[in-house]
Design brief:
Chains A, B: InterPro entries: Cro/C1-type_HTH, Lambda_DNA-bd_dom_sf. The structure is a homodimer of 102-residue chains. Chain A is an all-alpha fold and 102 residues long. Chain A is 70% helix and 0% strand. The first copy, chain A, binds a DNA duplex (30 and 30 nucleotides) through helix 3.
Chain lengths: 102, 102
Amino acid sequence: METIGQILRNKRQTLGLLLRQVSAYVDIDQAILSKIERNERKPTKEMLDKLAEILKLDKDELLIQFISDKIAYEIVDEDCASKVLKVAEKKIKYLKSHPIQN
Amino acid sequence: METIGQILRNKRQTLGLLLRQVSAYVDIDQAILSKIERNERKPTKEMLDKLAEILKLDKDELLIQFISDKIAYEIVDEDCASKVLKVAEKKIKYLKSHPIQN
DNA sequence: TTGTTACTTGACAATAAGTGTCAAATATAG
DNA sequence: CTATATTTGACACTTATTGTCAAGTAACAA
């Protein structure tokens, strides 16, 4: 089970790219990319898109990993975590089928 | 499908309690409670516990509603929302079975 | 009308959280 | 040792979130 940071780092190294090269393409400081790869900072969606491009990763898949990472860390310490996910799913379905309100 | 705010407001009114009374018990400004009930602000866990007490709601159930609300609103706009939840669940199971790292 | 009660709203300051930049500190390899 | 790659931490800056407060609306009674 890889974190988003691990995915990015692994793929970058597989492709033989340097932090400097990738960060230049994404147009961020390489310190930031270093932190993203170690899950110390979170990428924005723009960064994710650019990263997916240069690292030849599937954009949607990367986004899914990113968001699910965030959620997982948000609730992993709750002992009701799996119940939370079930209820959240119901709420989302409800919200999607009742698009106007709020 | 009720939001956390609706749950709190409904139960308070059922019990015939005033914002003033409940907010005094929870030890917060009644403006804050008003906003919580309209989902304009999020309660802390301490507030939730106190609210569950005075409103005779199940503490764990309330927490689940609270967190799932947060998550639902976080990802409802993603069209990959349900995939996200599935991946998140896997990640949580993984994290719980590998407790030491990070 | 006038007054009272319950609730809502918005402005405000204080605090916390997140951001990018940079230079110095560590590796890692040649 | 030297050079290159990466990490770290301090810093200033912006953005979010917070509690407090006073003024606002709305409903109703006197």
